[in-house]
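Structure (tokenized):
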């Protein structure tokens, strides 16, 4: 008898769903059935409920004891999202958000993720954790059809911020990633973060910013196209993708998702950790009016952080972290400092900081006024 799984994976199913055809390459499933079982029965378990970015689930900065098994659940949801006013993407998401939720564990903990591929979806999906070791980051052990679930456990052996993303094989890989299927995990050192001297540092808040490049096709009139479902969107989207020129570069799934009424908030004197991921393309975060006090540019906490950076670099396929203590009140723009991408394509966030202005750090000595050009200003010229 042909099971649902066999139908979807095999020739019959593929003929019915042409979009899946090349994903079948991901069927190079790792056979781990002969491996000796790991005895983790003495470890404590804890469940973490994932939350929508830019927020991050409750967690301790210093590990409270021995390594634990940290359980997470995520549902894969294919759905249309609005990436700008009147511009739509047939998105693929981890847990319904773009980016997927940020997970936090400590070095030496075990991450145990149950992944559900909703029966309403059309496509196979999986998850590749850059923080994991072996089996394509878990990708070859987690390939699930619509209506299937799977559970993967891996040991978080390296501290840092790491991307995870869908990677179901062949050209499905870039398509799923630029359709929204990426997120981030932060593996904290057991004792928490440390500065350039090795002294402990804590953050008061953490914000997770996931940057995405989208490739939305246009019709013959130059209007962005809208599609019935994810399968219908594939051929036109592939053509735009292969041109390597994104139509949108956004934070957290949409132009304006972190500006105006959606701005991030902090108080003067607070230390904010910004975790920034980009699963597909390089980027260069910059906090206008502020700095990176301590920046783990490559996101790996075994390396001493850089200090006082103006702009930092996130290599495509990685996540970095920057800690900043807000010293002045006001609105800060956190941008991708390719300013075309920030301003014209969407990659801007705002941080609204409450507090008292410090004139020692900055003062408007003369507010703008007209001046007499016959007498003033010439002294400035060489
Ligand atoms: Cu996928």
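Design, position by position:
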């Amino acid at each position: 008898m042909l099971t649902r799984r066999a139908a979807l994976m095999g020739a019959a199913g593929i003929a019915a769903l042409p979009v899946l055809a090349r994903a079948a390459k991901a069927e190079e499933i790792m056979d781990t059935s002969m491996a000796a079982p790991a005895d983790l029965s003495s470890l404590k378990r804890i469940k973490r409920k994932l939350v929508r970015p830019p927020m991050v689930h409750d967690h301790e900065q210093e590990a409270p004891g021995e390594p634990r098994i940290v359980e997470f659940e995520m549902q894969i949801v294919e759905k249309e999202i609005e990436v700008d006013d009147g511009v739509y993407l047939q998105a693929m998401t981890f847990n319904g958000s773009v980016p997927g939720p940020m997970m936090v564990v400590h070095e030496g903990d075990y991450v145990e993720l149950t992944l559900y591929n909703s029966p309403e979806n059309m496509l196979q999906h999986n998850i590749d954790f850059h923080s994991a070791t072996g089996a394509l980051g878990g990708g070859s052990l987690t390939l699930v059809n619509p209506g299937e679930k799977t559970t993967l456990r891996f040991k978080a052996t390296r501290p840092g911020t790491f991307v995870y993303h869908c990677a179901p094989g062949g050209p499905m890989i870039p398509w799923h990633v630029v359709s929204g299927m990426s997120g981030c995990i932060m593996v904290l050192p057991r004792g928490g973060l440390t500065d350039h001297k090795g002294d402990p540092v804590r953050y008061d808040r953490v914000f997770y910013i996931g940057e995405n490049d989208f490739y939305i096709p246009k019709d013959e009139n130059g209007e962005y196209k809208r599609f019935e479902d994810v399968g219908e969107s594939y051929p036109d989207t592939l053509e735009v993708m292969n041109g390597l020129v994104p139509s949108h570069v956004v934070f957290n799934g949409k132009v304006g998702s972190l500006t105006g009424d959606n701005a991030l908030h902090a108080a003067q004197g607070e230390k904010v950790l910004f975790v920034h991921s980009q699963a597909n393309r390089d980027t260069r975060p910059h906090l206008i009016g502020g700095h990176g006090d301590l920046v783990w540019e490559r996101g790996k906490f075994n390396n001493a952080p850089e200090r006082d950076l103006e702009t930092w670099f996130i290599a495509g396929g990685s996540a970095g972290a920057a800690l900043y203590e807000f010293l002045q009140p006001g609105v800060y723009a956190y941008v991708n400092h390719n300013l075309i991408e920030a301003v014209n394509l969407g990659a801007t966030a705002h941080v609204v900081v409450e507090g008292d202005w410090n004139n020692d750090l900055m003062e408007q000595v003369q507010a703008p006024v007209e001046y007499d050009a016959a007498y003033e200003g010439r002294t400035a010229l060489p």
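Reviewer-requested clarification: The mean pLDDT is 93. Residues 92, 125, 166, 168, 176, 181 surround copper (II) ion (CB under 6 Å).
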